[in-house]
Amino acid sequence: MSNKVNKTISINEGLNSITKGMPNFSGFVQHCIIGYLEGNMEIDWEQIHTQSKNGNDDGESKKKKTISIDEKLNEVTKEMPNFSGFVQHCIVAYTEGNIEIDWEEINTQPNEEKKRTQFGVNEFGYPNKMVYKGIGGSREERGRFAGFIPRTCALLIDLLLISIPSILLSLVGVSSGVLFLIVGLVYPVLFNASSWQATPGKRLFGLVVTDYDGNRISKKKALKRHALIFLIIITFGFGYLAQLWTDHKQTNQDLIARTLVVKKGMDNWAQ
Q1: What pairs with residue 263 in β-bridges?
Q2: pLDDT tens for each residue of 49-77
Q3: Are 226 and 220 in contact (CB under 8 A)?
Q4: Which of 190, 248, 250, 195 lies closest to 222, judged by CA?
Q5: Would 129 disulfide with which of 7, 43, 125, 227, CB 3.0-4.6 Å?
Q6: CA gap 190, 200 in Å, rounded
Q7: 214 by DSSP, 3-state: which?
Protein backbone atom coordinates (compact mmCIF):
# COMPACT_ATOMS: atom_id res chain seq x y z
CA MET A 1 0.00 0.00 0.00
CA SER A 2 0.96 3.63 -0.01
CA ASN A 3 2.13 5.90 2.79
CA LYS A 4 0.38 6.25 6.13
CA VAL A 5 -1.46 9.39 7.22
CA ASN A 6 -2.72 10.41 10.63
CA LYS A 7 -6.44 11.02 10.99
CA THR A 8 -8.31 12.30 14.03
CA ILE A 9 -11.77 10.95 14.86
CA SER A 10 -14.26 11.70 17.59
CA ILE A 11 -15.89 8.77 19.41
CA ASN A 12 -17.95 8.29 22.54
CA GLU A 13 -15.98 7.90 25.76
CA GLY A 14 -17.50 4.49 26.42
CA LEU A 15 -16.45 3.19 23.01
CA ASN A 16 -13.04 4.75 23.40
CA SER A 17 -12.40 2.56 26.45
CA ILE A 18 -13.10 -0.49 24.25
CA THR A 19 -10.49 0.60 21.70
CA LYS A 20 -7.85 0.65 24.43
CA GLY A 21 -8.26 -3.11 24.75
CA MET A 22 -7.67 -3.67 21.04
CA PRO A 23 -4.16 -4.83 20.06
CA ASN A 24 -4.20 -2.61 16.97
CA PHE A 25 -7.01 -0.08 16.69
CA SER A 26 -5.69 1.57 13.50
CA GLY A 27 -5.46 -1.87 11.89
CA PHE A 28 -9.02 -2.57 13.03
CA VAL A 29 -10.28 0.61 11.36
CA GLN A 30 -8.44 -0.22 8.14
CA HIS A 31 -9.97 -3.70 8.21
CA CYS A 32 -13.44 -2.14 8.49
CA ILE A 33 -12.82 0.30 5.62
CA ILE A 34 -11.65 -2.52 3.37
CA GLY A 35 -14.70 -4.57 4.35
CA TYR A 36 -16.90 -1.59 3.47
CA LEU A 37 -15.16 -1.20 0.10
CA GLU A 38 -15.56 -4.89 -0.71
CA GLY A 39 -19.26 -4.78 0.13
CA ASN A 40 -18.92 -7.03 3.15
CA MET A 41 -20.41 -4.40 5.42
CA GLU A 42 -23.78 -2.74 4.87
CA ILE A 43 -23.99 0.78 6.23
CA ASP A 44 -27.17 2.73 6.98
CA TRP A 45 -25.79 6.27 7.00
CA GLU A 46 -29.06 7.75 8.20
CA GLN A 47 -29.00 5.42 11.19
CA ILE A 48 -25.37 6.29 11.92
CA HIS A 49 -26.20 9.98 11.77
CA THR A 50 -29.11 9.46 14.17
CA GLN A 51 -26.98 7.43 16.58
CA SER A 52 -24.30 10.12 16.61
CA LYS A 53 -26.92 12.82 17.23
CA ASN A 54 -28.55 10.81 20.04
CA GLY A 55 -25.15 10.23 21.61
CA ASN A 56 -24.57 13.95 21.73
CA ASP A 57 -28.06 14.54 23.17
CA ASP A 58 -27.42 12.01 25.94
CA GLY A 59 -24.54 14.12 27.13
CA GLU A 60 -21.91 11.40 26.74
CA SER A 61 -18.59 13.11 26.22
CA LYS A 62 -16.57 12.60 23.08
CA LYS A 63 -12.92 11.67 22.91
CA LYS A 64 -10.55 12.69 20.16
CA LYS A 65 -8.49 9.78 18.91
CA THR A 66 -5.76 9.79 16.28
CA ILE A 67 -5.31 6.77 14.04
CA SER A 68 -2.80 5.96 11.31
CA ILE A 69 -4.26 4.60 8.10
CA ASP A 70 -3.16 3.97 4.56
CA GLU A 71 -3.21 7.08 2.37
CA LYS A 72 -5.43 5.45 -0.25
CA LEU A 73 -7.91 4.28 2.37
CA ASN A 74 -7.94 7.80 3.77
CA GLU A 75 -9.26 9.00 0.42
CA VAL A 76 -12.17 6.58 0.85
CA THR A 77 -13.00 8.02 4.27
CA LYS A 78 -13.33 11.49 2.73
CA GLU A 79 -16.30 10.23 0.73
CA MET A 80 -18.07 8.93 3.83
CA PRO A 81 -20.86 11.15 5.21
CA ASN A 82 -19.75 10.48 8.79
CA PHE A 83 -16.43 8.68 9.24
CA SER A 84 -16.37 8.97 13.04
CA GLY A 85 -19.89 7.52 13.10
CA PHE A 86 -18.72 4.72 10.81
CA VAL A 87 -15.90 3.85 13.21
CA GLN A 88 -18.29 3.87 16.17
CA HIS A 89 -20.65 1.58 14.24
CA CYS A 90 -17.74 -0.84 13.65
CA ILE A 91 -16.74 -0.82 17.33
CA VAL A 92 -20.31 -1.59 18.38
CA ALA A 93 -20.55 -4.37 15.76
CA TYR A 94 -17.26 -5.79 17.05
CA THR A 95 -18.48 -5.84 20.66
CA GLU A 96 -21.68 -7.55 19.53
CA GLY A 97 -19.73 -10.23 17.69
CA ASN A 98 -20.86 -9.11 14.24
CA ILE A 99 -17.32 -8.40 13.06
CA GLU A 100 -14.73 -11.15 13.34
CA ILE A 101 -11.15 -9.98 13.70
CA ASP A 102 -7.97 -11.99 13.19
CA TRP A 103 -5.62 -9.82 15.25
CA GLU A 104 -2.58 -11.84 14.25
CA GLU A 105 -3.28 -11.12 10.59
CA ILE A 106 -3.90 -7.42 11.26
CA ASN A 107 -0.66 -7.10 13.22
CA THR A 108 1.29 -8.93 10.51
CA GLN A 109 0.15 -6.71 7.63
CA PRO A 110 1.97 -3.52 8.75
CA ASN A 111 5.18 -5.51 9.33
CA GLU A 112 4.97 -7.07 5.87
CA GLU A 113 4.29 -3.67 4.37
CA LYS A 114 7.29 -2.19 6.17
CA LYS A 115 9.57 -4.97 4.95
CA ARG A 116 8.21 -4.72 1.42
CA THR A 117 9.05 -1.06 1.12
CA GLN A 118 12.49 -1.14 2.74
CA PHE A 119 14.85 -0.45 -0.11
CA GLY A 120 18.37 0.85 -0.34
CA VAL A 121 22.06 0.20 -0.17
CA ASN A 122 22.09 -0.36 3.59
CA GLU A 123 19.71 -3.30 3.38
CA PHE A 124 20.73 -4.94 0.12
CA GLY A 125 24.41 -4.09 -0.25
CA TYR A 126 25.96 -2.35 -3.23
CA PRO A 127 23.66 -1.00 -5.98
CA ASN A 128 24.36 -3.88 -8.37
CA LYS A 129 23.27 -6.31 -5.64
CA MET A 130 19.91 -4.66 -4.97
CA VAL A 131 16.75 -6.71 -5.21
CA TYR A 132 13.64 -4.61 -4.69
CA LYS A 133 10.97 -6.88 -3.25
CA GLY A 134 8.23 -4.35 -4.00
CA ILE A 135 8.99 -4.43 -7.71
CA GLY A 136 9.33 -8.12 -8.27
CA GLY A 137 12.49 -9.41 -9.82
CA SER A 138 16.02 -8.22 -10.38
CA ARG A 139 18.05 -8.48 -13.56
CA GLU A 140 15.37 -10.67 -15.11
CA GLU A 141 13.07 -7.66 -15.30
CA ARG A 142 15.57 -5.02 -16.39
CA GLY A 143 13.52 -4.57 -19.56
CA ARG A 144 10.86 -2.83 -17.45
CA PHE A 145 13.19 0.08 -16.68
CA ALA A 146 14.35 2.89 -18.97
CA GLY A 147 17.75 2.29 -20.54
CA PHE A 148 20.73 4.56 -20.96
CA ILE A 149 20.07 5.54 -24.59
CA PRO A 150 16.40 6.64 -24.28
CA ARG A 151 17.14 8.43 -20.99
CA THR A 152 20.08 10.27 -22.53
CA CYS A 153 18.11 11.24 -25.64
CA ALA A 154 15.28 12.49 -23.43
CA LEU A 155 17.80 14.49 -21.37
CA LEU A 156 19.22 16.16 -24.48
CA ILE A 157 15.75 17.14 -25.67
CA ASP A 158 14.91 18.59 -22.25
CA LEU A 159 18.15 20.58 -22.20
CA LEU A 160 17.25 21.99 -25.61
CA LEU A 161 13.76 22.97 -24.42
CA ILE A 162 15.16 24.53 -21.24
CA SER A 163 17.61 26.56 -23.33
CA ILE A 164 15.06 28.00 -25.77
CA PRO A 165 13.92 30.95 -23.57
CA SER A 166 17.54 31.89 -22.85
CA ILE A 167 18.50 31.64 -26.53
CA LEU A 168 15.61 33.87 -27.56
CA LEU A 169 16.52 36.50 -24.96
CA SER A 170 20.18 36.42 -25.91
CA LEU A 171 19.21 37.14 -29.52
CA VAL A 172 17.75 40.48 -28.43
CA GLY A 173 20.73 41.28 -26.23
CA VAL A 174 19.22 40.40 -22.85
CA SER A 175 21.30 38.50 -20.29
CA SER A 176 19.63 35.14 -19.75
CA GLY A 177 21.89 33.23 -17.35
CA VAL A 178 19.57 33.63 -14.35
CA LEU A 179 16.53 32.67 -16.41
CA PHE A 180 18.28 29.50 -17.55
CA LEU A 181 18.96 28.51 -13.94
CA ILE A 182 15.37 29.20 -12.87
CA VAL A 183 13.85 27.27 -15.77
CA GLY A 184 16.38 24.50 -15.24
CA LEU A 185 15.20 24.13 -11.63
CA VAL A 186 11.45 24.45 -12.11
CA TYR A 187 11.10 22.52 -15.39
CA PRO A 188 12.02 18.98 -14.24
CA VAL A 189 10.45 19.31 -10.80
CA LEU A 190 7.02 20.38 -12.03
CA PHE A 191 6.89 17.98 -14.96
CA ASN A 192 8.14 14.89 -13.08
CA ALA A 193 5.62 15.52 -10.28
CA SER A 194 2.77 16.23 -12.71
CA SER A 195 0.16 13.80 -14.04
CA TRP A 196 2.57 13.14 -16.92
CA GLN A 197 5.17 11.85 -14.44
CA ALA A 198 7.75 12.91 -16.98
CA THR A 199 9.41 15.86 -18.64
CA PRO A 200 8.50 16.42 -22.31
CA GLY A 201 11.72 14.66 -23.31
CA LYS A 202 10.89 11.57 -21.25
CA ARG A 203 7.29 11.66 -22.43
CA LEU A 204 8.44 11.65 -26.05
CA PHE A 205 10.30 8.40 -25.37
CA GLY A 206 7.47 6.85 -23.32
CA LEU A 207 9.18 7.07 -19.93
CA VAL A 208 7.74 7.92 -16.51
CA VAL A 209 9.27 8.67 -13.11
CA THR A 210 7.81 6.75 -10.15
CA ASP A 211 8.53 5.91 -6.54
CA TYR A 212 9.35 2.34 -5.49
CA ASP A 213 5.65 1.40 -5.45
CA GLY A 214 4.98 2.67 -8.97
CA ASN A 215 3.21 5.83 -7.76
CA ARG A 216 3.61 9.41 -8.99
CA ILE A 217 6.25 11.26 -7.00
CA SER A 218 5.48 14.38 -4.98
CA LYS A 219 6.93 17.82 -5.74
CA LYS A 220 9.10 17.46 -2.63
CA LYS A 221 10.57 14.18 -3.86
CA ALA A 222 10.96 15.61 -7.38
CA LEU A 223 12.85 18.58 -5.94
CA LYS A 224 15.07 16.31 -3.87
CA ARG A 225 15.78 14.15 -6.91
CA HIS A 226 16.71 17.16 -9.03
CA ALA A 227 18.82 18.74 -6.29
CA LEU A 228 20.93 15.59 -6.21
CA ILE A 229 22.21 16.45 -9.69
CA PHE A 230 25.28 17.82 -7.90
CA LEU A 231 26.32 14.17 -7.37
CA ILE A 232 26.53 13.74 -11.11
CA ILE A 233 28.47 16.98 -11.45
CA ILE A 234 31.06 16.29 -8.74
CA THR A 235 31.58 12.72 -10.02
CA PHE A 236 32.08 14.00 -13.57
CA GLY A 237 29.09 12.05 -14.84
CA PHE A 238 29.92 8.81 -13.02
CA GLY A 239 26.71 9.07 -10.98
CA TYR A 240 24.70 9.25 -14.20
CA LEU A 241 26.49 6.23 -15.66
CA ALA A 242 25.48 4.20 -12.59
CA GLN A 243 22.33 3.25 -14.50
CA LEU A 244 24.49 1.00 -16.69
CA TRP A 245 25.20 -1.46 -13.86
CA THR A 246 22.47 -1.02 -11.23
CA ASP A 247 19.80 -3.69 -11.46
CA HIS A 248 17.02 -1.19 -12.06
CA LYS A 249 19.00 1.21 -14.23
CA GLN A 250 19.11 3.93 -11.59
CA THR A 251 21.44 6.90 -11.44
CA ASN A 252 22.81 8.01 -8.06
CA GLN A 253 19.97 10.56 -8.01
CA ASP A 254 17.41 7.78 -8.27
CA LEU A 255 19.07 5.62 -5.64
CA ILE A 256 19.15 8.35 -3.00
CA ALA A 257 15.77 9.90 -3.88
CA ARG A 258 14.26 6.38 -4.10
CA THR A 259 12.85 6.84 -7.58
CA LEU A 260 12.73 4.84 -10.79
CA VAL A 261 12.47 5.73 -14.47
CA VAL A 262 10.20 3.16 -16.08
CA LYS A 263 8.74 2.51 -19.51
CA LYS A 264 5.20 3.84 -19.59
CA GLY A 265 2.64 1.09 -19.13
CA MET A 266 5.13 -1.04 -17.17
CA ASP A 267 4.95 0.97 -13.94
CA ASN A 268 2.42 -1.39 -12.38
CA TRP A 269 4.38 -3.85 -10.23
CA ALA A 270 1.46 -6.27 -10.24
CA GLN A 271 2.12 -7.01 -13.91
Answers
A1: 207
A2: 777 666 555 556 778 888 888 888 888 88
A3: no
A4: 190
A5: 125
A6: 11
A7: coil
